[in-house]
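Summary for the steering committee. One of the milestones for this cycle was to obtain a three-dimensional model of the protein with cobalamin bound, which we needed before selecting residues for the alanine scan. The sequence and ligand used are listed below.
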Amino acid sequence: MKSISFLQSRHSYAPPEGQGHVYTNTSLWTAASRVIEAGGDVAQICDENLRYCEPEGDAVGINLLGAPYIPTVRSKIESLLGKRPIVGGQIVNGLAEVQTLIGQQGSQLQTLFGQNVVNGNNDTELCAYLGIDPAKMPDVLETSLIPAYERISDEDMYEYLSREISFFLSRGCAKRCNFCAAQCGTKEEYRDFNVSEKDLRYLVRRAQSLGLKELDMYLSSLDIMQTPDKLKRFALIVQRIKKENPDFEIKMRGLAGAPYFVKANRKNPDAIREIVKAGLYSIGFGVDGGTPEVWKRERKGNTEDDCIDSILLTREKYGITPEILMVFGHQKETEESLKAALDFTKEMNEKYDAVPRPHIAKDIVPGSRYWANNLKDNETTDEERADRAMRIAVLMNDPDYFLTLDFARLPSSVSHSDPILRRLIDKYAKSIAELPGNTTQLLDPIGPEFSNAKFIETLRNDIGKFDR
Ligand code: B12
């Protein structure tokens, strides 16, 4: 049997010294708990946002949270001579399924992390390497994170639980928007409720033992309104735990799509009321564009009425904070559509105190339909396919440019070929970021059109700008 060290790499925008982005490593800990439960040999679980980690295992298992982590994880793996790299996370599916450029061997995952990289998302591959029986790996939805939590020292757990944590509640999304890189197109699936309850009770007890008085949780669900019956069931569990612990507070925030929110409000308003009663204080709505044409092109399924209604109802009927997740600047947008996105955000900000969260759409994120070239012929042209293939080649040849794919980063030639569109997106994104209450710290562009000195300066300016 081979041993494994689970390692959270330092955040791409962490300062050179001191703490990086300290945040519960839910994806990594879920993977670690499954291996522990299956009888695997887990040498350690460590987080380089807290301190440097010297891996002791035969292999090092790393979570790739998103595309901006690719350069950091690559350099970490390069420094681990002799250790077998195992990489997991949602982005890995997008990289494992695409063969690399002509002239390069294997999948994109291998091009980026070496020919011997193990795909941590693939149980057969993972178990074969570790020498464990795949049949013993618990189903992801039945996995408790307690085996991993128990390996985290009190000192470190205090650091995590005194900040916002991420809570694994459900996965999947029935929609499949073109630009989204999450695992979508499958019905939302909840974790086993007994397991979620057991984990939440554990976290409350652990927090109390550390002298903490509250838990602030970011729910993992991509759209909390897709399965309102189940959301209500979870809400009642949280309410019960709160009742049993009267001096302890539980707060939550989540994401939702406007059409599902409007439907839940019509058919199951109780679910929304109960989750608010349980402590939900904010919903981030994926508005993701300002015109019907943009929503249609991206298969977003939004209407302006649904977007307005969900924001209005969140504030006025349910009394909590709406956030506007505005992923915009999609390819083919015009000044008119970008301005519509700004105007919408501004109006909702003024009327309902909605929190602006501008993000710049990056079509070619591993996992998206654009990255996989998985679009219908009537959705794209040969010229656009060639343009995307060229930009993907730039990324694969110089992986430091994966930093451009951060949604908080302003556009460059890697993300948007058209310089006029880049200038317009820059202007409107900055205007949204100036609205009161904005929480996005926009990052300067990175691309081959900038000098090396500018690249270094940009990296310096990125420090500490962690997205939420
Ligand atoms: C919590 C969260 C965060 C937290 C980070 C928490 C942390 N440190 O882990 C915060 C708020 C900080 C965050 C930030 C960002 N996030 Co985020 N985040 C999430 C969220 C909501 C939940 C993650 C989670 O807990 N999932 C539950 C676990 C159990 O599932 P999992 O991740 O799929 O992992 C499974 C497997 O992949 C595998 N696995 C995972 N890692 C490993 C490692 C090993 C070794 C092994 C063997 C297996 C393995 O095992 C797990 C169990 O099966 C997801 C949405 C979602 N539902 O996943 C987005 C998500 C992961 N985030 C995403 C993105 C893009 C980001 C950002 C990059 C956004 C940006 N600004 O561009 C930033 C990071 C900024 C940066 N510059 O790098 C995308 C990733 C998409 C992609 N394919 O690239 C997601 C899917 C959201 C989306 N709709 O697009 N995020």
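Key point for the committee: The longest helix spans residues 335-352.
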